Amino acid sequence: MIERPHTSLVEWAVAGVPLRAGTESGDLHVVAAFDGGVLVGAIDGLGHGPDAAEAARVAADVLQEHAAEPPARLLGRCHDALRSTRGAVLTLASIDGRRGSMTWAGVGNVEGMLLRIDPAAPHESAPLRGGIVGLRLPPCRESTITVVPADILVLTTDGILHGASGGLDRSASAASIAEAVLAAHRNPSDDALVVVARYVGPRS
Length: 204
Ligand SMILES: [Mn+2]
Fold this sequence. Notes:
By secondary structure, this protein is α+β, with helices and mostly antiparallel strands. It has a single domain (2-199), classed as PPM-type phosphatase domain (Phosphatase 2c, domain 1). 19% of the residues lie in helices and 34% in strands. The chain is built from three helices and twelve strands. The strands form two sheets. A six-stranded antiparallel sheet has the order 1-2-12-11-7-8. Strands 3, 4, 5, 6, 9 and 10 form a six-stranded mixed sheet that branches. Helix 1 packs across helix 2. It starts with a strand and ends in a 5-residue tail after the last strand. The model has no long low-confidence stretch (mean pLDDT 93). The protein binds manganese (II) ion.
């Protein structure tokens, strides 16, 4: 469990477990603030073990360094950097606190959901394209949606079973939500990672 509740714009937490206890996970998160915004991402290095972790780290370093750039451009940068690795799949969400918007995109099967605080508003899913960053990059499709304070972004690697964001207690802390998803929906045959980021808006 990692929690940094004071990151600008979001209250966030991560929960994850490696496939085998005591080994390195090939799943990594990125939460990187930049001027006016924050980039949130989840990366699944292909397979598991040290080579998967290495691919995920290369991607995480690129994302930290260029956090202010739009997701499609970041996926291109990661693709170039990951050519010498076994590759990774990842989903990125870039939150713009000035516009109250979020632009997101993914390559592969890291699911992204935005849970709306307004119970009448439908949840949103990140646009994902099939492919592997570092091996085969599809033309990336970004979409931009509005976010309002208390909306909750949930990113899950495929070590979390599909549909994990249903029935969550949206008033709980990001840490509690992340732990609840991991506990209830873990697929025990893979590394697993859940990133939860609640938009809190710019603080004046
Ligand atoms: Mn996986």
